[in-house]
Amino acid sequence: MRLRRTVIVLFLAACGCAPDSAIILSEPKSSWRPPGGPLEIVAAVTEFTLAEGTDETFSTHLSFTKLEFEKPLAEQVAAYFREHLRKSNVFQKVIDHPEGADLIISGHIKKSDWGDNGSLMKTLLLSAVTLDLYPILGGTLSEPYADFEVKVTLARPAGTKFRSYSGKGQALEYISMYNFKRATPAVQLAAAIGQASEHIERAMYADRMAIIDFFIPAAAPTLTPGKQPAAGPGITFLYPKPDSTTKYAKPRFKVLVKSESPLTRYSIAVNGAPVFFEKLSGKSAEIAKSLPLSPGKNKIKLTAWNDKGGVSEEEVEIECIPPRPDAARRWVLFILPDALSYSNNPFVKLTRNLGVKRESGFSRERFLILRGRNATKQNVTSAVRLFLGKAENKDEIFIIYVGKGAWLGSSPKSNYLACTALTARQVQKAGISLADMRQALDKHVACPNVCGIYLFTGATEDGTLIDYSLLAATLGKAPSRTALASGPADAGQTIDQSKWAKGLETSFSPQADADADAVLSLDEFISQMKNAVGGTAGMKTARFGWADTKFLFFSEEPERE
Fold it and tell me: Helix 185-206 crosses helix 208-215 at what angle (to 10 degrees)?
């Protein structure tokens, strides 16, 4: 028992060990984007100050002695917020200095704290009371946390203040004997600052009409007594036509605005709710925006101003009849044998983009990526059994393979997905044959709806290209299954994996919706994939299964010529 308690103490000390003493905030990440696009305002993020008494060094009850920032905390937070604001795209442009800015953003850090909520005495006491079962059963041994609060103020370059917005963020971890990986203080603080930044950005965007009206005031009308108001601009809705229908929840609108005197600004409201309020210049402007509509009839009103005080309004009615998405949940298994770093992996970006399309049944919780050395035969078959095996009968499964294939004979047992192997001799041991893949699906996957997309970069070093037609027939043969196999036309050719990644990204985008019905079909997917990879020359494709596979339901209409 004493030995186990000694192990616990040593474990806690290891968890608290600091990699280095200087804190450098990590790069900001921002997943939120303003739904209506950026405000046409140039913002400058300038000085941030630190509340009196805020400590720029941290310590913990264990072996973190003292951590301090490599650069002053206020300076690092200002740079972090500036970059976060750029990535979130709230404003048209974010600059470092007030010269040329429409508004100035300054900040005041009210709270910045990092430490450890855990207690060595508490852990040892609970361990003693439970006869050392507390840590063994996964009890919390350490709770590193970050706590951050900031207020930013918006002002005109001349110094006139507009208003302030506050944001808070927290990052908390739970360390146990079975989960001993911990983030560094810099990562935890960056996460907390990122939360606070997003809260502020959302608040500013919700207040966008007042911000634009304050920082981009309309030109005062130049009227003399007895004279009529100046004529307003002319407004023409180019697309879609008034009283038309659309299947998209966010269709593209194009409007032409003309005026005898220079234009100053415009606003767009959907069903009475403002969605855009931006500057204009010149005597003519074509406005192109994606507008959020509700199912049924929607009223879109555009208002435009010129520098003589002239104002015009034009309202149209558009009916939105979106397609009814299937209720099926989608499970996605990515098999990527060729090693790619996680940070530069284009397939990671693809999974993030697909993972948020919940209206099409996708979810990040139902994504699994096997890449590089993890894409082994054993892991693939285990993923089919343990991951895809969870899918229910009404669900749909997508298997996306990108790698090399080998033909060693004319039967499904002699055609292989290369997994992590490179040569034909190795692929027999380390690869997975079409017959094995089919058997794994038949044995472990009760869900009948399986769509396989097998994209080949080439053949193994001493092998021949896999038989695409045989693959499609083998893995798409069962009812409700479909399989697409595509790759170079002969063994001497290769298709770069990053090109396949780009092809997949564009093929799962609204640009692939050729018939503009807001639904991506298998035929549209294949057509877009061929175009993205470089056309049909030097490329072969084979498919088997149901032709009406609906991959995605799009809410946003793509921009078309």
Answer: 70
Full-model pTM: 0.57
Cα separation, 200 vs 203, in Å, equals 5
Query: What pLDDT is recorded for position 136?
Result: 47
* Rounded to 5°, angle at Cα 448 from 442 and 452: 80
Task: Name the helix (H) or strand (E) containing 246.
Answer: strand 245-246
Q: What is the mean pLDDT of each run of 10 residues along the chain (561 residues)?
A: 45 45 70 81 91 67 51 87 91 89 91 68 51 48 77 85 87 56 71 91 86 67 61 91 88 93 89 80 92 92 89 93 77 83 67 74 85 86 92 90 89 88 70 92 91 88 85 84 87 81 84 84 82 70 74 76 57
How far apart, in whole angstroms, are the C-alpha atoms of residue 214 and residue 277? 12
Which of 122, 145, 136 is closest to 178 using CA atoms? 136
What the block records as the tokens of 514 is 């050729």
Tokens of 58: 């941290």
Residues 74 and 181 in one domain: yes
Q: How far apart are the first and last CA of the chain?
A: 75
- State the Cα–Cα distance between residues 44 and 460, nearest whole angstrom: 54
Phi and psi torsions of 329, nearest 5°: -85, 145
Kindly state whether residue 220 falls inside one of the protein's structural domains: no
Pairing mode, strands 415-417 and 396-407: antiparallel
- What integer pLDDT is reported at residue 262 of this predicted model? 92
Neighbour-count burial for 53-67, b at 16+ CB within 10 Å, e otherwise: eeeeebebebebeeb
Do 84 and 174 sit in the same domain of this protein?
yes
Could you give the CA distance from residue 108 to residue 515 in angstroms, rounded to a whole number?
52
pLDDT at position 180: 47
For residue 124, being part of any structural domain is answered with yes
Give residues with Cβ within 8 angstroms of 97, minimum separation 6.
44, 46
Question: What pLDDT is stored for residue 391 in this prediction?
Answer: 92
Quick one: pLDDT at residue 342? 54
Nearest-angstrom CA–CA distance, 526 and 486: 9
Integer Cα distance of 191 and 306 in angstroms: 45
72 and 99 housed in the same domain: yes
CA proximity to 42, closest of 279, 282, 286: 279
Residue 116 near residue 144, CB atoms below 8 Å: yes
CA atoms of 7 and 542, how far apart (whole Å):
59
CATH of the domain at 468: 3.40.50.1460
Q: Residue type for 393, please? A: N
